[in-house]
Structures are given as C-alpha cells and as structure tokens.
Amino acid sequence: MTEPARDGLKKPPVIELRKVSRIYRTETVMTYALHDMDLILEGGEYVALMGRSGSGKTTLLAILGLLDEPSGGEYLLAGQSLRGLSEDRRARVRNAHIGFVFQSFNLIGDLSVQDNVALPLVYRGGIAGAQRQRQARALLEEVGMAHRARHYPNQLSGGEAQRVAIARALVTDPQLILADEPTGNLDTVSAEAVMGLLDTAHRNRGATILMATHDAHYASRAQRVIHLVDGKVTDKPEQADRNLAQGGRLERSVPR
Ligand SMILES: Nc1ncnc2c1ncn2[C@@H]1O[C@H](COP(=O)(O)OP(=O)(O)OP(=O)(O)O)[C@@H](O)[C@H]1O
Question: Which site among 79, 116, 143, 241 is 20 to 30 Å from 18 CA-CA?
C-alpha cells in the first residue's frame, strides 16, 4: 500500500524505518543488533553511518538492502511498506531500486569484468544481451575501467575491483546506494578514487547514498553523519564509551 506524501506535495522519503528491531537469538542469549530504530533518509541525501564495531551498521545495511528482514517494526522504501513481501518480490524491489558496494567487492570470479557489471541487468530481465553489454561498457567507462573489460576479477587490484563494483552498483540506475566500508580494504589513493566515484554518483545521478565507514575523514564528505550506538541512532556518539564502560550492548538471557 502506498502511504500519502507527508505534506501532500513532497515525495515520501526514500527510506523510513519505524521502530525497527533485529534480534539475533542463540540458545543462551538474545542480541538486539538493532533496537527500535527510527530513521529517515530523504531522496538525494548522502549520509555516512558511523559506530563502533558491533554497533549494528552491517545489520542496518542488510535490512535496508532487503538482504535481511527486521524482527519487528516497519520499513518503508519510497513510501511503500515492505512488510510481508515474498522473496521473489523482495528480489525485484532490490534489483529495481538498490545498488550495493561491499568492503570485499563481491565480484563473481568466473565472469569477466564487463559481465559482472552487466549481471544486475540479466536479473532484471527483458533487456537484450547487446544492450546489456552496451550499458555495462558505458558504466565501465564512467569509472575509468573500460580498458579492463575483458579481464577477470582476480586480475584486478583492490582499487580497480572496487571501481568495477561501483559500476555494477550503478548499472541499474538505483535510487539508493548502500556502501559497507567501501574503502576498508584500499590504500589511500584507491580509497580517494572510490570516494570520488561515490561523490559523482551522488551529484550527477541524484542517488541517495548511505555509506558505513570507520573513517571520520571519509564520513565528513557526506552531507550528514548518523552515529549508531548499540543498535540505535544517537546524536551523542560519545555515549558509546559510557555504554561500553557499563557493559556494552543490550543482550538478554533467553528464558528457559
Ligand atoms: N548472525 C549473527 N548471530 C548472532 N549475533 C549477530 C549475528 N550477526 C551480528 N550479530 C551481532 O549483532 C551486533 C551488530 O553486528 P553488526 O555486524 O551489524 O555490527 P557492525 O557495526 O557492522 O560491526 P563492524 O563494524 O565490526 O562490521 C553485534 O553485537 C554482533 O555480534
């Protein structure tokens, strides 16, 4: 069901989370990786996501990217509630609206660089092979990797692999780009190049970007920084230190 725009004129935010939780259960302990999280990202925003290791950044990106489901609460993408969608429908929404960039690139080893970039268009369906290859080639040119189109991922440096991964993320022209530590495995020169590509994607394509990073320097390139502490958004990141001193994130024993 589509929700009405909030003031009748503005579009709904690209992302809205309402009291979203993600609980991991083991035999003895329940961990609240996300805890009643409220979050709004407007269309075209470039937002950095910071927080200590274990604060919930990857869990949040996985839920926003429809790779995982909340244990409770509601996720609205462009005003559309995603509750109760079938796996097939989730895959379609993911393919139509979301591009991913991971720390470890996640390219497919036995596909050429150009076929890796074309792959989201294969999943989309209905696009002829020659057209897919043309679009992939255009994206490789955009990220300065066309000269490696026929190479394979294991023949690339880390910086090159991440540029290819960004081309793959952009080939479907997604509304939302989720990046999980995109510079985490890169030297500073490659990291700068990757950050430049994200800046360009934001500026020229109007994409909404949410980028998890441990690096305050790269976070400062975003328009806004969100801090996570124990699975919640906070505007007081120094709270993380106090919570840690008091025993860390919310965990409960599973009742027997
Ligand atoms: N599959 C799982 N089973 C149980 N607990 C999990 C699982 N995945 C994550 N967690 C817990 O959920 C919490 C959040 O993890 P998450 O990976 O989202 O943190 P993060 O902020 O991305 O950390 P990092 O910066 O180290 O990548 C952590 O306490 C983690 O131990």
Answer: 241
Domain assignment of residue 2, yes or no: no
Cα–Cα distances (Å) from 64 to 7, 16, 34, 56, 104, in that order, read 24, 10, 12, 12, 19
Query: 194 in a domain, yes or no?
Result: yes
51 lines ligand 1 (CB under 6 A): yes
Domain count, the chain: 1
Q: Which residue range forms the structural domain that includes residue 175?
A: 15-253
- Residue 234 placed within a domain: yes
CA of 74 to the centre of ligand 1 (A): 20
**Ligand 1 atom 1, closest CA:** 24
**Distance, CA of 194 to CA of 206 (rounded, Å):** 17
What is the domain-level CATH number for residue 184? 3.40.50.300
Residue 6: inside a domain: no
pLDDT in tens, 198-226: 999 999 999 999 999 999 999 999 999 99
Given a cut of 90, whether residue 1 has pLDDT beyond it is no
Does any ligand 1 atom lie closer than 6 A to the CB of residue 57?
yes
Please state, in angstroms and rounded to a whole number, the distance separating the CA atoms of residues 164 and 114: 8
Q: 213 in ligand 1 pocket by Cβ < 6 Å?
A: no
